[in-house]
Queue: 2 jobs
Job 1
Amino acid sequence: MTDPSERKLNTVSPDSQDEPSFSRRDIIKGLATIPALALFLYNYIKKSALDSMRRLQVMSELGQSKKAPAVLKSRKKNELIRLGVIGYGWRGAAVAKGAGFASPEWVAKAREAVNANRLDKRLETYLSQEDLNLELAGVCDVFDTRREQGIATSTNDVRPGGVVQSEPAKGYRNYQDLLASDDIDAVIIATPDHWHAKITLDAVRAGKHIYCEKCMTRTMSEAIDVYDAVKKSDLKFQLGHHSRASSSHEKAREMIENDILGQVTLVEVTTNRNSPGGAWVYPIQWNSIEDVWQTYASKEQYATPKSLDWDMWQGPAPNRHPFNLERYFRWRCWYDYGTGLSGDLLSHDFDAVNQIMDLGIPKSASASGGIYYYTKERFPDLIKEDRDVPDTFQAIFEYPDRGLTLVYSASLANSRHRGKVFMGHDATMEVGGGLTVTPDPQSTRYKSKIEEGIINTALPLFSYSPGSKDIDGITSATAKYFAQKGLVYTYRGGKRVDPTHLHVKDWLDCIRYGGEPKCNIEEG
């Protein structure tokens, strides 16, 4: 089958594989009756072909191609794995969907979305997932509404592969009871950050394989405890940095390994959002848990001290507070429960840079920031208690042994998109859902080819943009942010895939067949 990237006059986008493909000969022949235009286009196409040939020749010499990473071959299905989900908030629901369990509400909304916008491919992507041979055996949440939604999800009849679970998952309010069950083999931990270490340690003691959402822990001492416990066990641990499955990151790593950029001295990674939801200031009364960017519970199922076990939810948090819906639904705004911009969003980029460059731990790090926009003084009707997590933040990491500085900057009050930028002496690489490599006019490596006109520094030396058109199918601002980061979908063999699904599959394959997950405890 022809690789979509090699089709004549088509883009690298996998979606173009269904479009007509015409040769240059066909186009010129069709324009023969318009002499002036035909001559212009003939010369233009001839020049474009020559430029393209030259660029391909250069990339070939450098050991590069536009082919996507190889399709991940699934091994033959083996034993059933019985899964438990601890924390069925929006991320718990998203990871469960990646495992093949989308809620009926999500399916209904996805159907409405595709009817309203043909570019919305969420349902198509979900249904095309591989059946991972799982049973959703248990769902734990301290909020009754979320727990009930997770239980209902377990028997949803719209599933990849079409196999419907006959018995609903068992519900738990206390995660210890779920871990004690002999009916659970592996757990997904998707609670607020302050619970990650405690539940992971208890899961290790209970002999359960672990998929833990980032950030792995709140503190360094917790990280050491978790590391030691997992290393002493034979359990498979996967940290939820699902961008590890991004095809653009794999292609970027190839660029670094082949020294396409030359000496990289500066890497910049960023976060930009400009909405209350993007700053974790979620509304308190919502429509449905399934609009994961904005909502959690309907007005009719409003959280109360009766339906929400507040004491259990606070658990190991360093400070205790009376029942507080703001702190529950907007927990990322306080360090008692979350890890701020560094643990929630920088962690994705830091992991991506390590995946691409193997930087490891920096020799030094510094950070600063402040709460400059989302205050109760500015938004008295929206915010009742001021946050202690900054909405503007920057961090600098020094790697003198690599001759490199990594810089992170973030604003939750500005939406200007800035990708991950790797600045080398010979070229600059920008990475998001795709990647672009632009030659530097002062490059030493490419100097002769620049002087000969083979390389035009005004044009990309290399670009890789799988599914570039599909960004138009994403409507919410925060969803677009994640899509541009490559966190919503990636591509394998021209097929759009949820990277969370690939990340869960990687973990399950290691449980079944051995090996270490891509974001194992060492990487975490």
Job 2
Amino acid sequence: MNILITNDDGIDSPGIAALAHALKRIGNVIVIAPDRQQSAVGHALTVSAPLRAVPFHRDGDMFGYAVNGTPADCVKLGVSTLLDYTPDIVVSGINHGSNTSVNVMYSGTVSAATEAMMIGIPSMAVSLTSFDLASDMSVAADYAALIAEKLLHMNVPKDTVLNVNIPTLSADEIKGIKITRLSNSYWNDSYDTRKDPMGRDYYWIVGTFIAPEADDIETDDGAVRNGYVSITPIHYDLTNRKYLQEMKDLFG
């Protein structure tokens, strides 16, 4: 099995190193990831600047290619140009911080997996709830390998990505795997107005994550808050099908 790995935290992040180490147990791994932090860039593509892919070494060994672009760039460039084969699966992660609920709309991690799905490659995004770069990634990486191996033998619809979120717990503390829906959580955002050294205003986003379904383990956010690994099948068809007929009646 040939596995393409990417992320949005950058090729030098601990999460992608742990993921690559675990996935080498089940297949041949190639890493193509951003050369810098790309969190919350969504599905952005680079269309007005050249892309470059530079060999990246970790601990003296060739680890993969660092691309001066977005997570979606990495998948698109990797599959179309850098690789002389089509990967069997694309795994994006391990992200530092969960990607539940509305966060899938912002996430570069999820968008990289979505790009792979749009190309026709089975894919999954993997996130750990902790934002601490020093967090132990080994449990999350083991779950990622387990789910990735199963993904190849699952009859997943071609328009579907598996969005995996893993609580920051030991293997013994994790209660199991839940198949979930996206929760109805949302951000209550605001911006701090601050001054730079020249006295000019700048703005820094702050916000509170509101989780009305925090206790509902049938949702992604509720599951990880309550000790479960969450797997949510998501797809990019944003059509509000329940509203189609009403719109047709209104404009027909």
